[in-house]
Amino acid sequence: MQQINVKPASGKLGILTPGMGAVSTTFMAGILSARKGLSKPIGSLTEMGYIRLGKRTEKRNSLIREFLPFARLQDIVLGGWDIYADNAYEAAVNAKVLERDHLDPIKDELSAIKPMSAVFDAAYVKNISGPNVKTGKTKYDLAQMLRDDIKNFKKNNNCDRVVMVWCGSTEAYSQVGAEHQTPESFEKAMKENSPHIAPSMMYTYAAIMEGVPYVNGAPNLSVELPCMIKLAEDRGVPIAGSDFKTGQTLMKTIVAPGLKARMLGVAGWYSTNILGNRDGEVLQDPESFKSKEVSKLSVLDTIFETENHPDLYGDVHHVVKINYYKPRGDNKEGWDNIDIFGWMGYPMQIKINFLCRDSILAAPLVLDLAQFMDLASRAGFKGIQEWLSFYLKSPLVKPGLLPEHDLQLQKLKLENTLRYIGREELINHLGLTYYGYDESDASKIGN
Fold first, then answer.
1. CATH number of the domain encompassing residue 335
2. How far apart are CA 301 and CA 309, in angstroms?
3. Is the per-residue pLDDT at 433 higher than 60?
4. Which end of the chain has fewer CB atoms at under 10 Å, N or C?
């Protein structure tokens, strides 16, 4: 087995979030609350999860945070960018995710987190706007300003390491073009103010150029571009994406593999949501919704392996709707109607009504992704980190590969990567162990 030498998680870890809205401020509040012992980081694998080591008969189970070195919550420094100048406390109050009883005990700490001015383009996010934005002659200049922000944040907060997790609004749908093929073509397009360069792409570029691991928590294109993948490989930076897997899609990656495992057919899957937060407002723009729709629709095709099971899944009518309903706020409601069929083709139905809290589900994902990306960087990993697909709706994979959407297989891959880093035997889904594993590319573990 190849030996991985992980650098210690010494000093401070900065976590920067483009976007300081509902998800980001909920994440920040949870970190600060847990530091004071006021709450527990529920939903976080890196804080509360266990991992089995060795054979079942050995009965060795370890907290993940004790098995491998991660930054302590006390050593995390929080920051970000936003188009509104509200500090994290004000933004959290406005987001209406958390009650004042939970925010007021950490008011001073949250108030001290003030957003840096954001890169914003109304062509990519049409339904909101704010005054706290950067201006520059070219998009290349704006990207350099973001690089300066990263350097200054790291210096001013005495951070040893920094990671970036996109928590901003979903941008309008875009496709890969000539501008996105190479780092050189991308830089040229920025200098020419190409309309095909979105703000999230500039954040991605700035992060990679500064050696900062980057995760795309939204469905729009940023880190998925060929130029960014090449840049990350060349500069030795871990990248991952895309789109946090929280509510309705999380349910799909739990239920759909079970249906396929039992060879039950699916005639249709109708999904609709009502949501009243800023994300819901942004998604009323058809182009922003298209980015989200493509991400949500891709899950079932891969899980069902339609080409192998045409009789069961060859004609699934899959519909996804998101409706902005202001009174609901961040408390999203997802309805799923699944028309299935079984023995001799007899029809049945499954109804799922998931009343979730979108940002409550997303906040621990931000922490885990940041911690795991920092671990990947300290372990010398670079480029696409497919083992983090567990957290994402549209997992980024290497060219020619299909993403894995089965939640349990994703978790196996994640845990095996952790075992690999920690020099423990890998475990497959049969509970057996692999011996003599010689794998130079940890992203393949669990395939």
1. 3.30.360.10
2. 11
3. no
4. C
Please, which residues have CB within 8 angstroms of residue 37's CB and are 6 or more apart in sequence? none
User: Is 445 among the domain residues?
Assistant: no
**In the listed set 355, 373, 388, which residue is the last one of a domain according to the structure?**
355
Residue 447 lies in a domain: no
Q: Which tokens sit at 377? A: 């960087």
pLDDT bin (cut points 50, 70, 90) of residue 413 is very high
Give φ, ψ of 17 to 5 degrees: -120, 110
Torsions phi, psi for 265 (to 5 deg)? -80, 160
Tell me how long the chain is.
Answer: 447
Chain-centre distance for alpha carbon 122:
23
The single residue listed with the structure tokens 């600060």 is: 32
3-class DSSP assignment, residue 275: strand
pLDDT band at residue 128 using 50, 70 and 90 as cut-offs: confident
H or E, element range at 269 = strand 265-275
**Torsion angle defined by CA atoms of residues 264, 261, 355 and 244, in that order, rounded to the nearest 10 degrees:** -130
Residue 430 CB-density burial (10 A; 0-12 exposed, 13-18 middle, 19+ buried): exposed
* Nearest Cα to Cα of residue 22 among 88, 100, 101: 88
Question: At 371, phi and psi to the nearest 5?
Answer: -65, -45
Give the count of domains, the chain. 2
Which residues are 77's β-sheet partners?
A: 14
The CATH number for 116's domain is: 3.40.50.720
Per-residue confidence band for 438, with pLDDT thresholds at 50, 70 and 90: very low
User: Same structural domain for residues 240 and 271?
Assistant: no
SS (H, E, C) 135-193: CCCCHHHHHHHHHHHHHHHHHHCCEEEEEEEECCCCCCCCCCCHHHCCHHHHHHHHHCC
R_g over Cα of the chain: 21
232 with 178, same domain: the answer is yes
User: CA angle 442-54-60, nearest 5°?
Assistant: 120
HSE (side-chain half, CA atoms, 13 Å) at 311? 6
Query: Per-residue pLDDT tens for 218-244?
Result: 999 999 999 999 999 999 999 999 999
- 77 and 159, same domain (yes or no): yes
Can you say how many angstroms the Cα of residue 207 is from the centroid of all Cα atoms in its chain?
A: 16
Between β-strands 333-341 and 347-355, what pairing exists: parallel, antiparallel or unpaired? antiparallel
